[in-house]
Design goal:
There is one protein chain. By secondary structure, this protein is an alpha+beta fold. It is 32% helix and 22% strand. It contains two helices and three strands; from the N terminus they run ββαβα. A three-stranded antiparallel sheet has the order 2-1-3, covered by helices on one side.
Length: 60
């Protein structure tokens, strides 16, 4: 399973998403996503242990 970190134009982390579709939904809602990086496997494990990536997206 892949997870993605989304950043604004200042390089600040603004969301963590599980799918590309989640990223598109955030963009449609006006989130200023400029850069998307796929998380490393060890980073993804932390997300899955601490909860759903949607927990990081307060817009859902």
């Amino acid at each position: 399973m892949n997870f993605y970190s989304c950043f604004d134009q200042e390089g600040q982390l603004i969301a963590r998403c599980q799918t590309i579709n989640d990223i598109e939904v955030l963009k449609e809602r006006g989130r200023p996503i400029v850069e998307v990086k796929e998380m490393k496997n060890e980073e993804s494990v932390v997300c899955s242990l601490t909860g759903s990536p949607s927990d990081f997206n307060r817009d859902y």
